[in-house]
Amino acid sequence: MHLDVRDLNNLVKQSAKYDLIVSGWVGLHYLDDVDLQNVLKNFQRLLNKKGKLIVIEGYYNTEYVKILDLMMDTKNIIKEKVAILKERLIDVFGDLTEKIIRTNYMFPTLKELEMTFKIEIQFEHRLKWTKEMHEKLEKFLADKEDKLVITEAPWFLICENR
């Protein structure tokens, strides 16, 4: 087994062939259509015949995503964006298998739970954590039986190169 980590922007220069390519949590669904088509065609070009592409994205219907949407006052667009990603995967590879694996974050304390979202908001979304966000999180958690368990789910999109 050989591990090779690459930047999406450098795929065009790559010439090796692979049995498996994993694109994990990079947000392919946020690419515009032209860039997405190019990335997927490059993945196909880099795969051996019968090679597999596994794309891992966050599933939209989880408490984790609902909390982020609440914090940022946004409408969740993951479902619509991943629908487009799935169409493009089928366009390029001809097939698609999906697996959603429901998991839970089990936080030891409310402070660590809040810190996880604070880090996500500040570093992933480049927003400042506010008192209002803290209050929204508290309100969301107030209705939960187990406040330290937050659902999350990776969404696996699997294609085979023909």
Describe the overall structure.
This protein is α+β, with helices and mostly antiparallel strands and 162 residues long. Helix content is 41%, strand content 23%. It contains 5 helices and 6 strands. The chain has a 4-stranded mixed β-sheet. α1 (33-46) links the parallel β1 (18-24) and β2. α1 packs across α3 (78-93) and α2 (63-72) packs antiparallel against α5 (131-142). The two termini are 22 Å apart.
Name the descriptors:
single chain, 162 residues, alpha+beta, Rossmann fold, 4-stranded mixed β-sheet, two-stranded antiparallel sheet, 5 helices, 6 strands, 41% helix, 23% strand
> Which superfamily, in CATH terms, is the homologous superfamily?
Vaccinia Virus protein VP39
Total helical segments? 5
Mean pLDDT: 90
Rounded to an integer in angstroms, the radius of gyration calculated over CA atoms is 18 Å
Give the CATH topology. Answer: Rossmann fold
Largest sheet: 4 strands, mixed
Total separate domains: 1
Q: What is the structural class?
A: alpha+beta
Globally, the shape reads: elongated
- What portion of the residues fall into strands of 2 or more residues? 15-25%
